[in-house]
Specification:
Blueprint lengths: L2 E5 H8 L5 H10 L3 E7 H9 L11 E6 L10 H11 L9 E3 L7 E3 L9 E7 L6 H16 L8 E7 L7 E6 L5 E2 L8 E2 H7 L19 E5 L5 E4 L3 E2 L12 E7 L2 H15 L8 E8 L5 E4 L5 E6 H8 L5 H9 L4 E4 L5 E6 L9 H12 L19 H15 L3 E2 L5 E2 L1 H4 L25 E2 L4 H9 L10 E2 L15 E11 L2 E9 L1 H6 L7 E5 L6
Parallel strand pairs: 4-15, 5-8, 5-15, 20-23
Antiparallel strand pairs: 1-3, 2-3, 6-14, 6-15, 7-14, 8-11, 9-10, 11-12, 12-13, 15-16, 17-19, 18-19, 21-22, 24-25, 25-26
């Protein structure tokens, strides 16, 4: 489950209200999230790097919040604030819209890209106004997506570029490493791709991504009209096109081995930050040309409609709400919903930020969250069964607990053992044991299914002879067959039968010295064996 860190004061300012820690924790719980920790950047660094690491670091309060792994729209401050405000009915869900593409910002794929990362999508954010906080959030969301849905860039790698520094159309190519040369982000000189791979072998963050393309005969690269390198995905962007606080127009590209996830990533990124654009929530599409000359427009930002049955929703959740009430609950989860006349169906409009909604069950879950799990009345299960713990299992658990209370440690030896373990080592001929034989045993230690528990306990003792005495062990488990005849495993005159209602159910006594010798034990041992089934 991903965890995001947000500055408490910035979060409260965006929400338009100040909360105590407990109040905000309650709000998170109601929304289906969990406030994991209240901390500071200084405290985090001190935990990771030691006491000296906190010097000069901000002590601004941070909220660390656990986010469901499929809620990509909540991985940044912008998405979290939007979701909470809509949930509290303080705003309507944003309406995202597409602006017409411009041919000058199209992206063209070459056939060689099929050898390494065959897919790409793109988008443009125009008239964006970054602040230091929103810029940091923009970069942090990319990192969260890379670690989560992008599977550490192996499935998708995101590149963001300042359109003012490059000229389109752009080319997504795959070239031999030696043919790629550019100045990478925050580097002082141009380097070839092999030099960069060597450089980043010791880089704390980037070294984990090198193996994605290291052994490929060609490396992916994105260039502009003039051959300026924008990025070498999934490793590093170019320094020439890096975005800054002064960037107004952002070109976003995502190369991928999974096209569906690439669409989700770009949809999420542009939806979260289109609120800072000159035309709020407006995103410009890009043409992405396949090697065969056909093209697709990205991002899609598709709204789709789902229909669910009101009676089923109420039944599955365990509530009894009207259609208008359920529609209002879904709308609080950014799922604008209307009630269809006549058939009791709900028409749900799923926005491009909610890629986690793939089935009616996801909508039922959101209804339950908005309704409040604590508000759902408990009721007996409607399944027609009489399920209960088996009496034998119940007695077994009770005996285990009492043995443990008496200071004994439970042993869990193998169910299979050697023939000698259940016969000659216990002073009984093998012919007297009606044991289940293994047809093709892998080792001599697993020839038969045990007929008694005692050999396993004795072998456990033998394997722990160096432990301090006394060793007190017990086992309560199944055997394949028990021998009810007199048992020569015990010392004559120092053993007794355990009788219940005139029925022998076990034995107790001191083990015979020959038995101890067979198991390579040198200390006297006592044991008790009981069949607990007669107690039922």
């Amino acid at each position: 489950m991903p965890t995001i860190s947000v500055k408490r004061d910035a979060l409260f300012a965006a929400l338009g209200k100040t909360y105590t820690d407990d109040e905000f924790q309650d709000l998170c719980f109601e929304f289906g999230l969990e406030l994991d920790e209240v901390t500071t950047e200084k405290q985090i660094l001190m935990k990771e790097q030691g006491e000296s690491a906190g010097s000069g670091v901000s002590e601004e309060v941070l909220y660390r919040i656990d986010i469901p792994a499929n809620r990509y729209d909540l991985l940044c401050l912008e998405g979290l604030v939007n979701g909470l405000l809509v949930f509290q009915k303080k705003k309507d869900p944003p309406q995202y819209r597409l602006k017409k593409y411009e041919d000058c910002w199209s992206l063209h794929l070459t056939p060689s890209t099929a050898q390494v990362r065959p897919y790409a999508v793109a988008a443009v954010l125009r008239g964006i106004n970054f602040t230091k906080e929103s810029y940091d959030s923009f970069i942090d969301l990319q990192d969260k997506l890379h670690q989560n849905i992008c599977r550490k860039r192996s499935l998708v790698a995101i590149g963001t570029h300042d359109l003012a520094t490059v000229q389109g159309p752009f080319v997504y190519d795959a070239l031999p490493p030696a043919d790629i040369k550019f100045k990478a982000l925050n580097q002082q000189k141009e380097m070839t791709a092999p030099e960069l791979m060597e450089l980043y072998q010791s880089h704390a963050q980037l070294k984990q991504y090198l193996g994605i393309i290291r052994d490929s005969p060609v490396y992916p690269v994105i260039k502009d009209k003039n051959g300026v390198v924008l990025s070498m995905p999934p490793i590093i962007n170019g320094d020439h096109s890096k975005i800054t606080l002064n960037t107004k127009n952002v070109f976003i590209e995502a190369t991928a081995t999974d096209l569906t996830k690439a669409k989700v990533v770009v949809d999420t990124l542009v939806c979260m930050f289109s609120q800072y654009c000159g035309e709020q929530y407006a995103v410009q599409q890009c043409k992405v040309f396949a090697p065969d000359g056909t093209y697709e427009l990205y991002p899609k930002l598709e709204y789709r409609e789902e229909r669910i049955n009101l009676d089923k929703a109420n039944s599955y959740i365990g509530i009894s709400e009207s259609g208008e009430s359920v529609a209002a609950l879904l709308s609080r989860m950014c799922l604008v919903t209307s009630l269809e006349a006549g058939d009791g169906a709900l028409r749900v409009r799923v926005p491009p930020t909610r890629h986690d909604v793939i089935h009616a069950c996801d909508l039922y879950e959101d209804i339950a969250i908005a309704y409040g799990y604590n508000n759902i009345k408990r009721r007996a299960g409607r399944v027609a069964t009489a399920g209960a713990q088996a009496p034998l299992s119940k007695l077994t658990e009770q005996l285990r607990r009492e043995c443990a209370h008496a200071g004994y440690s439970e042993a869990l030896p193998f169910t299979l053992c050697s023939r000698e373990d259940i016969s000659t080592k216990l002073g009984a001929p093998l012919s007297s044991e009606r044991a289940v034989l293994i047809a093709n045993p892998k080792t001599l230690e697993f020839q038969v299914a045990r007929t008694r528990l005692l050999p396993g306990l004795l072998k456990t003792l033998a394997a722990n002879k160096k432990m301090p005495l006394p060793l007190k062990l017990f086992e309560i488990s199944d055997v394949v067959l028990q021998d009810s005849a007199a048992d020569p495993a015990y010392f004559p005159g120092r053993c007794a039968e355990v009788v219940l209602r005139d029925r022998v159910i076990g034995k107790v006594g001191v083990l015979h010295p020959s038995v101890l010798t067979a198991f390579e034990l040198t200390n006297p041992c006592s044991a008790i064996e009981i069949n607990i089934e007669p107690f039922l």
